[in-house]
């Protein structure tokens, strides 16, 4: 670890059974040796509370704490994270372990950070057991006050669902036909709050023992749909995120990582965050787990730093010989230190030391893309016009087009402060609350630009349609009225009058103050407007009624960004990523250039490359698969 420049290690994440082998009997000796050893070598510890996976003695003694899935099946021990977040037994036991652990390690010189649980909701986001049902009812009572208000919010008059008493209300368990969508959304909100309550309970104990040690938990922003991380940002002392990608190619993994970082900053309010876990090479939970080519560990890790991370931690340090994850990559692989992975870990450690001055600086963005977990949940519930419209797919498509142009985007909530952005993008923001809609209107009112994708602004937070023509929340802003959706058969393409190609979705639209920029040439609505723009004051509000093919979408966003006066972080050739971080308000800035191609790239820049120490005059050459970080002073 010293050779690789490691200065922080996460320890004990799944160690409950070793730390408390029987209820109330603690064994800290082995962990004392670990913490003392790393401390002797100047390494700090991100100490886990170890509560992510209760041991067998616990599930045996408290079988009702085991989670139940939507079909009513219990999930059993033998893997990890088998607990119901609403179980009072689980919460009591987790707090007891945290109390014992924090009491024991308070004041240990290696202790730098608390790591509560692990990836809340990663395996069991929702539990449908009777304990959860009772807790859900309590949560609903607090939200609605009385059952009539809940009936109203859930529109239970439809399909004979009117509840006469709280006792009749259940989680959205498996049903004969489609579940009530508002009930489902509230259950997802409730479930997030239950995980957060578990976090808060442990945090309260930690604060009591070690008021000066920051507390965090690792999110899975960009990956996990089921947890709304927005309320968590203010609960942790520092936002920490894990990034794992399902993409097959290294370029796509990098773009996934960029979006995850951009959303993570939205959660942290723009503050630097910790990259808590990433895979050094392959994972082991995909059908085919592709290893990374030489040099790509560094490129990926510094990609997260470019997006605002002030750390590069990995799962995992040393590959285990046994257990379920033995084929997951590690910085120290089965092959040992004579390996690509260890050599690259040593190189990365040296790079990170050179990037010390970057820590604390903030990513600079002129564009915001609106991002909201409940909008994601709602768009993908049953009974929508087309299964081919996915929320993440839409956001990814717009984000990817901007990534390719070197334009940095913050992914922020519709109610976030939009004052810093020239342009706000809303790809298929199906659900938006009144406060979000007003905030977006305010952005346009003060001269900000807006581009909205199809099937946006359709419903409120209860999944109730905003009537009078779609997109209800944005109709006036965009100067359009959509009468009916015309989704397309799988694989069908439509042509637009300006040469663009599109698919998946079309809409019957009537301009109402907007100009028509392109019409459909074919498909179900020939001659009907496909792309519109409304000018008001300095602001332009663009609307897309269809899913443009990637080249057409790139054209659209090139025009939209140019008209908004948005400038890229640097003028980069295709496949080179550019992001700027700055010590605000006007301190030194750092231009990150990451070359994802297999040929060297020339990029205009000036300053000093922190990684090589070389002066950069006019241009820097970024090697194939390499990185430059130009300190611009
Ligand atoms: C998660 C967990 C780790 C490990 C990795 C594997 O992020 O936190 O314990 O299982 O996934 O990719």
Characterise this structure.
This protein has 633 residues and is of the alpha/beta class. The protein is 30% helix and 19% strand. It has a seven-stranded mixed sheet with strand order 10-9-11-12-19-18-17, sandwiched between helices. The chain is globular, with a radius of gyration of 26 Å. The mean pLDDT is 97.
Keywords:
633 residues; alpha/beta; 7-stranded mixed sheet; 6-stranded antiparallel sheet; 27 strands; globular; binds alpha-D-galactopyranose
Count of alpha/pi helices = 15
How are the strands ordered across the major sheet?
A: 10-9-11-12-19-18-17
Number of DSSP-assigned strands: 27
Whole-number average pLDDT? Answer: 97
Oligomeric state as shown: single chain
The radius of gyration is 26 Å
Report the biggest beta sheet as strand number plus sense, adding barrel if it closes.
7 strands, mixed
Task: Kindly estimate the percentage of residues that lie in beta strands according to DSSP.
Answer: 15-25%
Kindly name the structural category: alpha/beta
Cα end-to-end separation: 33 Å
Bound molecules: alpha-D-galactopyranose
What's the helical proportion of residues?
Answer: 25-40%
The outline comes out as globular
Q: Outline the low-pLDDT stretches.
A: none
